[in-house]
Amino acid sequence: FDVHGAPIIGHDEKLKGIVVVFHDITELKKLEQARKDFVANVSHELKTPVTSLKGFTETLLDGAMNDAALRERFLTIIANESERLEGLIHDLLELSKIEGEHFQLNWQDVDVEELIDSTFTVLSERATEKNMTLTKKIQGNVTIPADPARLKQIVMNLINNAIVYTPEGGEVTVRAKELAESIVLEVSDTGIGIAKKEIPRIFERFYRVDRARSRNSGGTGLGLAIVKHLAEAHGAKLSVESKPGKGTTFRIVFFRSWKETE
Ligand code: ADP
Fold first, then answer.
1. How large is the ipTM?
2. With bands split at pLDDT 50, 70 and 90, how would you rate the model's confidence at 206?
3. Which residue ranges does the record assign to the Histidine kinase domain (predicted)?
C-alpha cells in the first residue's frame, strides 16, 4: 500500500482530524516487476548468442582459422547464432509493435483454405525432414474476419510449434469450421504435449517448458506471446488442450461481431 496522510485544520486553526488515504499499488508493483523481469530476460537472451559469436570469432583469429575443418565448423556456428540473434530481434520488434499504442489491424475476409495452404507450403520442408504429415480439415467455405498478415503469423507460429514439439513421423492437423456467430480454428499435433501446470505459463514471454529443445529448434520463446497478443487484438478466444505424450490442440475462436463492435 501507498499511504498518504493530511491533517484537517478547522477555521479556528485547530486540528479537526486526519485524512489517511491507502492506495492499493499491488497491480502497479506487479507491472513494474514484470517490466524488470522482461528487461533482465531480454538482456540474457541477447547476451548468450553474442558471447558465443565473440568467443568463436576470437578463437578463429587466434589461429583456428588456419585449420580448414575447424574454420568451417566455427563459421557454421557463427552463421547459426547470427540467425538466432536476428530472429530474436525480429520477434522483439514484432512484440513491441503489437503492444504499441498505434497498432492497427487491416480487416479483411480471409479465406482459410488459402491461408492454410500457403502456410503448409512454407513449412513443408521442415515437416518432410521429420517425416511428418500436415493435414487440413475445413468444413465448407470458411472465411475469417481478420488481418491477413497477422492471422498468417498466428497460424505459422502454431503450426511451426506443432512440428517442432512432435517427434518424427507425427501428424499435424489444422481444422476450421464455421458456427453461427463464430469461426473455430484448431491446430493439433501428436507430439510431446504440455503438462497441465505449464499451460498457464507458455504464453509468457521467454517461458519454455524445455529450454534446450526450444533453443535447438531455433525457438525464441516469444512465439506464443505474439500469438496471444494477436488473438486478443482480433477479439478472439485462445485455448489449449494437451495430454503429455499424446499431443496438443491450440484453439482460436473468432467472433463475427467483434470487428463491428471494436
Ligand atoms: P518457443 O520459441 O520456445 O517455441 P513459444 O512461445 O512458441 O516459444 O512456446 C513456448 C513453449 O511452449 C515452448 O518452448 C514449448 O515448451 C511449449 N509449446 C508450444 N507449442 C507446443 C506444442 N505444440 N507442443 C508442446 N509444447 C509446446
1. 0.98
2. very high
3. 41-258
